[in-house]
Amino acid sequence: MRARWTLLLLCVVACNEHERIAPSSYPSTGLYTPGSTLGASDPTDVPMPGVGLGNRCVSLPSTGAVDGGAVGTTGMLTIEYATKTYDGRYAPKNCTAVWLETMDGAFVATLEITAILRRPGMVYWQEHACTEKHGPDVVTSATLRTHDKMHELTWAGFDFEGKGVPDATYKLFIEVAETDKEPGMLEVFEIVKGPAPYSMQLPVAIEAPLVQVTATWAVQ
Fold it and tell me: How sure is the predictor about 54, in pLDDT bands with cuts at 50, 70 and 90?
């Protein structure tokens, strides 16, 4: 009888001890484990100021375009850029995202996204862009294995809904990530859509994972 009561007491103690174990004591270890964050950005990350701007799938103010036609100058913007490693967790594998916004922070269009399974790790793009509607000129590919690729992408002056945008100065964002556990690196430039053609090399910070960035605006 004493042995039976001892066994029962041990069971109660063991069961109560099991219930006190926090779920975080057993972190997910596989992609298909419920609650796994594998392949996603860490929710404790703190991106740079300016992100987290709410719903980005908001139509730009009407510009008077008819049937999706361009507004102001008709032309083509070509962006060429090369990247380099910053010794991230998965280097030299890397993902990139390029998009445009108005000067007051309204999303215009994604021009390039080289990430498919790793898109959740593109922290800045996820926060700044309308990820459901990339835009008419977006180029998408899988994660790049090296930094050997010369990126070349174009923009004909349309927003993510296919509507022409007016002549103005816009912000060009280029994000490069070699990890999915913390934000990658982000560079912001200003480009002009207007009647004057140009070709220029944009200034790149020394610590940025960019070798060079060239912007060419050709008037049609």
Answer: low
- pLDDT digits 0-9 by tens, 167-217: 999 999 999 999 876 788 999 999 999 999 999 999 999 889 999 999 999
Domain spans of the chain, in order of start: 75-219
Q: Which residues contact 49 (CB under 8 A, 6 or more apart)?
A: none
Closest CA to 191 of 143, 161, 152, 155: 155
* E strand or H helix that includes residue 8: helix 2-19
The token pair that represents 141 in the structure block:
């590919």
Measured distance CA(164)–CA(72) in Å, rounded = 9
Average model confidence (pLDDT) across the chain: 75
Q: Tell me the C-alpha distance between 170 and 190, whole Å.
A: 6
The answer to whether 128 and 122 are in contact (CB under 8 A) is no
CA distances from 40 to 37, 110, 123, 170 (A): 5, 20, 9, 29
* Cβ partners under 8 Å of residue 208, min gap 6: 185, 187
Which distant-in-sequence residues (6+ apart) come within 8 Å of 159 by Cβ? 60, 108, 109, 135, 165
